[in-house]
Design brief:
Elements: H1 30-58, H2 71-76, H3 80-110, H4 117-125, H5 132-142, H6 151-163, E1 180-184, E2 187-190, E3 200-204, E4 229-235, E5 260-265, E6 268-274, E7 280-283, E8 291-294, E9 313-315, E10 320-321, H7 322-348, H8 352-360, H9 365-376, H10 378-393, H11 397-402, H12 414-423, H13 427-457
Parallel strand pairs: 3-4
Antiparallel strand pairs: 1-2, 2-8, 4-7, 5-6, 5-8, 9-10
Helix pairs in contact: 1-13, 3-7, 3-10, 4-7, 7-10, 8-9, 10-13, 12-13
InterPro entries: MetI-like (IPR000515), MetI-like_sf (IPR035906), UgpAE/MalFG_permease (IPR050809)
Keywords: Cell membrane, Membrane, Transmembrane, Transmembrane helix, Transport
Membrane topology: Multi-pass membrane protein
């Protein structure tokens, strides 16, 4: 009969292999599959599941091992140091992935059409080959406030001094029995008014000989000029030779070249001049009856740049301080290349016909980028953002190395606080922080898995 099945011929729906019972669709025995998976499952349980479970269990006990319930979790949201770490982690999650992804997108788009784009991408990606430890050491040196050691401040101070040169006499001030007195705001002014034909002495002390300007010449007493006001501004001290005659220039003392002298009447500057190399100066008849003032600009401290690793707020409205922003920039330096490479790969997969069609329809390059390129790159941008968000939630190395000890609490993050809690032998709070980090990562991972499944269904 037609319905009969010949011996040895598999019935419909069977695999064609003898003894298919107990086998999977592919013909592999389930027990054999389980045997191969068992080592991986054991490792997964020992290295992932057990630590998570133990951390959750330990988070309910205090540092002495006594059960405390949710006390450690209450500490997370009441302790100022941990709250700073949580706030900084939120700042990290918002700023670092966004800046790194934006830079990666810009680099990928701008280097797409240039001949040396590959070489540029290689240079941008190279920091990924450096460990966090090495990058932290590099940027700790880059951010040094001393311009002689810190590369960033060396450049910053050079640019600043090009527009606002620092004074050569930052430590200068009047000595004892000086005819000068403080004039407010860091300036100094004569105690009495000046008269024509009577040289004025403006003695100062406090500038080390090695810091005097190279053009400084031996101080000279100014000659009297009828109808004019003359005088000398000089360093009234000679190291190792006593004080000489006080408030009078000596041959062994140096003039203050370039120092500014102002004639002030009724609070208004009527005339100003600068001293010569030997400290002598001359004012016209306008200065007769005025007080002579040495303005505060003569004594401005040298500009030493920005305290990149200091606690000062750079974005006070969201609580971002310099040290946190500096560490974030170091992270971006490392990971912008990662974002650029992934985005460049996605950019290469975009059909050129779509871009050309948009240009033919009259769109300019900005419109093509905003309305065509970015929407088509949305899946890749999501991958980069999610990856970097997970990465920054666990940031530890850069903060630990770059932030100096006195401001480390201002740059604190959860992973660093977890380490500090273990150092303090408070494993209960440390476990609670670990659980909090796990709970923060889970939603991001769930979003990533859901997005990947959508991509597969497409």
């Amino acid at each position: 009969m037609a319905s009969e099945v010949r011996a040895g011929t598999p019935a419909a729906g069977t695999t064609g292999v003898k003894g298919t019972q107990g086998r999977s669709v592919t013909g592999t025995r389930k027990r054999m599959a389980a045997a191969f998976l068992l080592p991986a499952l054991v490792l997964l349980g020992a290295l992932v599941v057990y630590p998570i479970g133990y951390s959750v269990h330990r988070s309910f006990f205090d540092k002495s091992g006594d059960f405390t319930g949710f006390g450690n979790y209450v500490t997370l949201f009441t302790d100022d140091t941990i709250l700073t770490a949580i706030r900084n982690n939120a700042i990290w999650v918002v700023l670092a992935p966004t800046i790194a992804t934006a830079l990666g997108l810009i680099f990928a788009v701008l280097t797409e059409r240039i001949r040396w784009g590959t070489a540029f991408k290689l240079l941008v990606f190279m920091p990924m080959a450096i460990s966090m430890l090495a990058a932290g050491i590099i940027f700790r040196l880059v951010y040094e406030q001393d311009p002689e050691r810190g590369a960033l401040n060396a450049v910053w101070v050079g640019v600043h001094d090009s527009f606002a040169e620092s004074s050569a006499f930052p430590k200068a001030h009047p000595g004892q029995e000086s005819p000068l007195k403080p004039g407010g705001g860091g300036s100094f002014i004569t105690r009495t008014t000046v008269a024509a034909g009577e040289p004025v002495a403006l003695p100062l002390v406090g500038v080390p000989k090695e810091q005097m300007p190279g053009e400084a010449a031996p101080a000279e007493a100014a000659a009297a000029e009828p109808g004019k006001v003359t005088g000398t501004a000089w360093q009234d001290f000679t190291l190792g030779k006593g004080v000489g005659e006080r408030n009078a220039p000596d041959a062994s003392e140096s003039g203050y070249p370039g120092i500014t002298i102002e004639a002030v009447k009724d609070g208004k500057v009527v005339e100003s001049t600068k001293a010569a190399a030997d400290g002598t100066f001359e004012l016209s008849a306008k200065a007769v009856g005025a007080q002579l003032r040495l303005p505060a600009s003569n004594f401005r401290e040298p500009y030493n740049g920005v305290d990149w690793l200091g606690p000062d707020k750079v974005l006070p409205f969201i609580g971002v301080n310099f040290v946190t922003l500096s560490v974030i920039l170091a992270y971006v330096w490392m990971w912008a290349g990662f974002a650029m490479v992934l985005i460049a790969a996605g950019l290469a997969a975009i059909p050129r016909e779509l871009l050309e069609a948009a240009r033919v329809d009259g769109a300019n390059e900005w419109q093509v980028f905003r309305r065509v390129t970015v929407p088509l790159l949305a899946p890749v941008l999501a991958v980069v953002l999610v990856t970097l968000m997970i990465n920054v939630l666990k940031i530890f190395d850069l903060v630990f190395i770059i932030a100096p000890g006195d401001v480390r609490d201002d740059a604190n993050v959860l992973a660093l606080q977890l380490y500090n809690s273990f150092v303090d032998r408070d494993s209960g709070v440390a476990s609670a922080i670990a659980v909090l980090l796990f709970l923060l990562v889970v939603p991001v991972m769930a979003f990533n898995v859901r997005r990947l499944r959508r991509e597969v269904r497409r």
